[in-house]
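protein under study:
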Amino acid sequence: MSDKTTICDTTFKSITQTTPEGHAELGVMERDGVLHSALGSFVSKLQAIGYLSSDLKSIDTWDGKHLGTAHVICRWHTRSWISKYMYQVEAVICGRRYTGRTMGAGMLWRGKLKKMKQ
């Protein structure tokens, strides 16, 4: 699957591959004939990578599609030029609960499968 958007002279494209084991997305940007790419979102049985939505309630793909629900567990001050807070976020993606951290809205969130108490 591939979606393409052009803003000014820059073309943005998301290439996504989904399998029974998970999901992987590649974000591609083209400007002046030069291609730049990076891994976008990723979901497997053990880990997940996505982007925290602007309302802090969902984890999204690089191009803004919904991956799962998010719940901010806590936040604390940081001494970073990127964000003044670090967030601990739990997310439910494909029926699995992941826990991870992010610097805030629109920023990368990296989670690992949460061990459930028995």
Observations:
- Residues 47 and 112 are 4 Å apart (CA to CA).
- The mean pLDDT is 89.
- The longest strand covers residues 66-77.
